[in-house]
Structure formats: structure tokens, C-alpha cells
Amino acid sequence: MSKSIKLALTAVIGGILLAMWWNHYGNAWSGLKSVEPLWLIWALVLLLASLAFQWIRTSLLVGNGDWKPIAAPVVLSHGVNVLAPSLLGDLLEIVALNRILNRPSRAILTRLVFRFLTTLSALGMLAGVAVGALYPNVGFGVIAAAALMPFLADQSTGWWSKYIAIPRTAPIEPMDPLGVATTAHHTLLSLVQHAFSAASVFLLGASINEAVSPATAAGMLSLADLATYLPVPLAGVGIHHWSVSSVAELMGAVPTGLVLINHAILVLVGGVCAITGWWLIPDKSLLTRQNG
Predict the structure, then answer these.
(1) Burial of residue 107 (number of CB atoms within 10 Å: 0-12, 13-18, 19+)
(2) Per-residue pLDDT band at 235 (split at 50, 70, 90)
(3) Helix (H, G, I), strand (E, B) or coil at 94
(4) What was the pLDDT predicted at 189?
(5) Is residue 223 scored above 90 in pLDDT?
(6) pTM of the entire structure?
(7) Does 151 or 63 have the greater pLDDT score?
(8) 122-155: buried (b, 16+ CB within 10 Å) or exposed (e) per residue?
(9) What separation, in Å, do the N-terminal and C-terminal C-alpha atoms of the chain show?
(10) Which residues have a Cβ under 8 Å from the Cβ of 236 and sit 6 or more positions away?
(11) In the predicted model, is pLDDT for residue 232 greater than 90?
(12) How far apart are CA 22 and CA 144, in angstroms?
């Protein structure tokens, strides 16, 4: 079956599922009657910009700044992590990057662990913003601890990298730290990436006349993203819905429409990323063979 036919069939199936979702949930709110198209477009632009920052971060960490070969694994990983058991996409990303870049899998995993820690740092800082809206002192403490974490992790790379192990791969020497300046750079990139995602949630609410405060949007985004790292199938779907609802309620807002439409966009973008990433990888055996 050709790529075009597969893509067409996938699009049809996705359209049917989206129509079923809308038939079930569409009448639960009246937001579409007063959608602001410009805000909706900007929300989608910021969401895509956030994904682009993930691509940039990965290329700088493992691809020596060569962006093009990194695109397919990053996009595929994002889509799979939304739709499949959490972190499965990261496993596929490591295998693909190992074959594309011809670098040891354990070295790639070490740098992706650092990327993950900078992600946790950014989400922690956004959570601190949300907490700070209710409890300023606690919020400041959360932000400070989250900001410090990547630097501690980087300076201890030589210690923890020697414990990085992948079955049937060759061991490597403990890796050197990236350094304070590089760590600060990657932490800032991660913060900007996830701030864009939080801003997307904020603008999405504004576009359907269910605006929440920036602090609430930051809290919704941070907890939802943290929850998707739990080892639960479809974490990005079910737990995401629970997370954003819980944070909104805690912050004194219950934006039913925002939760529903944000949930739908998450699944839609995840599906598109999974399809696109798979499409862009020229040799699918990249995901089944591994060396180093």
C-alpha cells in the first residue's frame, strides 16, 4: 500500500473519530457560537512554536546543531507520547537517533535525560507561578528549586551517566557536564517552549470566551504535562483531561469548554505528529534496528 493511500485512510479514520467526539461533547458548551478566530489561530501558532523549540533543543543536545535529521524522531516521539503508553515515544526517538546520527545509544539517552530534567525544571517554574498566585512564598520556593535543578543535574553528569544502561548496547565512558552557560541556555529554551504552550492555553480560552488567568493557564499546562510522563497508557488523553480540570477548579475557575477543546487539540496534534513523524522517517527499519 502506498504512502498516499495510508495517509488518506488515516485521515479518514481520524476525521471519523473527531466527528464522533464532537457529536458526544459538542453540545456540552456553547463556545463555538462566539469563537474569536484570531485568538484561536495564535493559540495554534504558539502550540506549533512550542514543538519547534523541542526540535531545536534536541538538535543542539545530540545533533550538533544539524536540525534536519532530528525533525522526524522528535515529531514522532511527541505524537506517540500523547497517544501511546508514556515515554514509548522517547524510546523510539533514541533508536531512530542512534541510527540517523550514528552515535552511541547511551550517549543519546544521557543527553535526553538532561533534556527531560530541563523540561521538569520549566514545568516546575510554571507550577510555581500558579502556586504563587495563591501562596507567594511557596511559589517562590518552587520556582527557585526548579530553576536550580538542571545545574545540579549537569554538574553531576559524570556520576549519574555511568549508570545509564540500555540492554544489548555497548557501554560508554562517563560523560562530561555541559557547563553552566550551556545549561542556562537549555533551561531558558525549555522555559520559553513551555511558556509558549501555557500562552496557547490562555489564548485558547480567550478565543472561546472562557478566558482564565495567565497563572491558571500556567498551572493547567504544567500539571497536565507532568502527568503525561506517568507510565500509564493514553496518559496524554485521560490524565491530561483530569489535570487541567483539577488545576482550574483549584484556581477558582471551571472552564468546561476550554478543558474540552484543549483536550481535543492535544489528541489532534498528537495524532498529526505521529503520522507526520512516521511519514518523514525514510527508513522505518530505523525503529527496529539498533547499534552502539
Answers:
(1) buried
(2) very low
(3) helix
(4) 96
(5) no
(6) 0.80
(7) 151
(8) bbbbbbbbbbbbeeeeebeebbeebbebbbebbe
(9) 33
(10) 81, 82, 83, 86, 228, 266, 267, 270
(11) no
(12) 42
127 vs 18: CA distance, rounded Å: 31
- CA 137, CA 38: separation in Å to the nearest integer? 37
CA distances from 39 to 36, 42, 191, 203, 224 (A): 6, 5, 22, 6, 22
- CB count, 10 Å around CB of 192? 16
Q: What are phi and psi of 119, to 5 degrees?
A: -65, -45
| Residue whose grid cell is 453540545 | 27
Do 223 and 244 form a contact (C-beta atoms < 8 A)? yes
Listed by start position, the domains of the chain span 34-287
Grid cell 493514553 is found at 234
Provide the pLDDT for residue 157: 94
Among 58, 92, 99, 56, CA closest to 76:
92
Instruction: Return the C-alpha cell found at 170.
Output: 555497548
